[in-house]
Design brief:
The protein is α+β, with helices and mostly antiparallel strands and about 180 residues long. It contains 5 helices and 8 strands, in the order H-E-E-E-H-H-H-E-E-E-E-E-H. The strands form 3 sheets. Strands 1-2-3 form a 3-stranded antiparallel beta sheet. It holds the Pfam family dsrm.
Length: about 180
């Protein structure tokens, strides 16, 4: 018996929901050459999948299916990398938390984030954030500006990674920061 739970999700819908959940920009580019339609799938501006078919809808479905396969392969490869290197896992997934922990441990004020830029079309906004910390011994750190990202959280994480690297260089071998 077929139920909604056992029915497979349509690839176009599955890809749409996945990209929304990951705060990634999804775009389809369709073109026709003769009687063959070509559909490209772009995620955050990068081509992930492509397919050709006489029917445009079928080409879109096949391109979405191809893109899902590529994205799932990338996710499993990323999971294997983070499992191998636990330190890297903490750095990439919890960068703002790590930065906050360092500030608490060294009795510094919390990091200050500020929006540098917010732009792009409504369906594919990009955010750029900067972060700095007031260290008790040397005053304010340099302001670290992150990469443009599709969400505020990711933009803050991008800036935090750069500040963590800066703090690592400046405070290496100084466990108390003094």
């Amino acid at each position: 018996m077929v139920t909604p739970d056992t029915l497979p999700m349509h690839p176009v819908r599955e890809l749409q929901e996945r990209c929304q959940q990951q705060a990634e920009g999804l775009e389809y580019k369709a073109s026709r050459t003769g009687n063959v339609a070509t559909v490209e799938v772009l995620v955050d501006g990068i081509q992930i999948g492509v397919a050709q078919n006489p029917q445009k809808k079928m080409a879109q479905k096949l391109a979405a299916r191809n893109a899902l396969v590529v994205l799932k392969e990338k996710e499993t490869a990323a999971k294997k990398d983070t499992e191998k290197d636990g330190e890297k896992k903490n750095g990439s997934q919890f960068t703002r938390q790590t930065l906050n922990d360092i500030c608490l441990r060294r009795q510094w004020p919390m990091p200050q984030y500020r929006c540098i830029n917010e732009g792009g079309p409504a369906h594919a906004k990009r955010f750029v954030y900067a972060v700095r910390v007031n260290t008790s011994d040397s005053g304010w750190t340099d302001e670290c500006i992150g990469e443009p990202m599709p969400s505020v959280k990711k933009a803050k994480d991008s800036a935090a990674v750069l500040l963590l690297e800066l703090l690592n260089r400046n405070y290496r071998g100084k466990p108390d920061g003094k």
